[in-house]
Amino acid sequence: MMFDVVKSSTRLLAAAGLAVSLSALQAAAFDTKARAAYVVDASTDTVLLSKNAEQALPPASMSKLMTLYVAFEALRDGRLTLDERLPVSEHAMSYKGSTMFLNTQDRVRVEDLLRGIIVLSGNDACVVIAEALSPDGTEAGFARYMTKRAQQMGMANSTFANSNGWPMAGHRMSAKDLAILAESLIEDFPEYYPLFAETTFEFDGRAPSNVRNRNPLLKLGIGADGLKTGHTEEAGYGLTGSALQDGRRVIFVLSGLNSTPQRAEEAEAIVNWSFRHFNTKTIAKAGEPVAQADIWMGAAAAVDLVAAEDLEILLPALAGREISAEVVYDGPVNAPVKQGDQLAELVIQPDELPEMRLPLVAANDVARGGFTVRVTTAAKVLLRQFLNGPAEAS
């Protein structure tokens, strides 16, 4: 559909009376018991819930996801292989809590270590990986590298003191950072992500009491396929999770819950809420004209603005008032214009959700105008100056 364009100085706005049915009713925010929470619809990058999401808190074993990300990078770069066997240091063996019960006589395959971290939450397995990849061979050096790498990835509230989340001063992550990390793992390493859905892993028969994945959602049939639980006295019970239903992925982080049952109930409820109370709407098909942009000194006076790909937004599922939108760009646009150049944005503001800005691009090339176009344009400007004054002409 096309939108009517209204000119306002050099800022052009297109009033968007959407032809498709874009309606929304204010969606009630999920009343979570978690100390901190963050929920994002990964398919549309829409934040559904944010509670203390940028507060740096103890992440417990959820910080193992950063160790895994660095390990996956090493596998991708050829610095590790899945069949490579790594030695176990006394320092790695010294960790208590959830472990693989490794000892200094072991040389353990990297693939087993990764599964030991993901499924068994092995503190010792994290240290083996850390010491192998650390710039100085120590877990502390690896933690410093993790902190630097996290900053590079946009995790502004993450500082690591060890590789596994064992309680230590200064070891902190925010719920939003954990969500960024989860999405990075899913997008950057699809070949390894299925490991997060494994429900059991028996390593060498050493720990029959520690063979099950603690993620309470994996067997519920609600599309959950990762990622990592965490618990310490300081941090409480937490879960960084993700679920996929009908091609739509939700990533969520819960931290600071009071018990294992509360974590399970809260996580299941938040997944169901995310999928039941929000729907994806396609508001423009790829290549479909949405508006026009005026061209300055071009072979054509205007160019169609189209969506480079299907434009989808997430809206509360229950019907309500219509959603308005506008096409915004700085114009007129100087020629030449190349097909696919981003010239404008479709700006939408649904109730109770962040403003959405979706890119619009040129549908075709527009070359610079020839001599006749330039002379005609100059004549029009001079005529406006004569009739209306310089300010109006500009």
Could you describe the 3D structure shown?
This protein is an alpha+beta fold and 394 residues long. It folds into 2 domains: 4-24 and 287-390, Peptidoglycan synthesis regulatory factor (PBP3), Domain 2, CATH 2.60.410.10; 36-276, DD-peptidase/beta-lactamase superfamily (Beta-lactamase). It has helices at 64-77, 90-93, 110-118, 123-133, 139-152, 175-188, 260-276, 371-388, 390-393, and strands spanning 4-8, 11-16, 23-24, 36-41, 46-51, 85-87, 107-109, 224-232, 236-245, 248-257, 278-284, 289-296, 302-306, 311-316, 321-322, 325-330, 333-334, 342-348, 356-362. It has an 8-stranded mixed beta sheet, with no helix packed on it. Helix 1 crosses helix 4 (123-133), helix 3 crosses helix 4 and helix 4 crosses helix 5. The radius of gyration is 27 Å and the shape is elongated.
Q: Unreliable stretches, pLDDT < 50, 5 or more residues?
A: 1-27
**Derived structural class:** alpha+beta
Could you say what the CATH topology of the largest domain is called? Beta-lactamase
* Broad shape: elongated
Helices and strands in order:
Elements: E1 4-8, E2 11-16, E3 23-24, E4 36-41, E5 46-51, H1 64-77, E6 85-87, H2 90-93, E7 107-109, H3 110-118, H4 123-133, H5 139-152, H6 175-188, E8 224-232, E9 236-245, E10 248-257, H7 260-276, E11 278-284, E12 289-296, E13 302-306, E14 311-316, E15 321-322, E16 325-330, E17 333-334, E18 342-348, E19 356-362, H8 371-388, H9 390-393
Parallel strand pairs: 12-17
Antiparallel strand pairs: 1-2, 2-16, 3-15, 4-5, 4-10, 6-7, 8-9, 9-10, 11-14, 12-13, 13-19, 16-18, 18-19
